[in-house]
Specification:
This protein is of the alpha/beta class. The chain contains 5 helices and 5 strands, in the order βαβαβαβααβ. It has a 5-stranded parallel beta sheet, with helices on both faces.
Amino acid sequence: MKLLFDHNLSPRLVKNFADLYPNSQHIFLLDMDRDEDTTIWEYARYHDYTIVTRDSDYNDLSLVRGFPPKVIWLRRGNCSTREIAHMLRAATSDIQEFFQNPDLGILTLR
């Protein structure tokens, strides 16, 4: 399982989670930070990524297009990269279950 971090999250998260989610990426590191959400969606689907984001756009795309890709939607206000990393690490078992369940396309973390 590998994550694709959206532009509204720090590229440092890729390195922070290399132990749990090797081969993850950030759209900035892929030079996709100016691409449309639909382009990123298709890239994630084709390359078997789960999108991690803080905005509702990918949630909306998932409702319209279905999945894959799966989406982890971080529903927390303004917070630091450290807080995001802590939230994702604290939810590791929930994320693992989410990946294993073929009937789920969106995981909301608060």
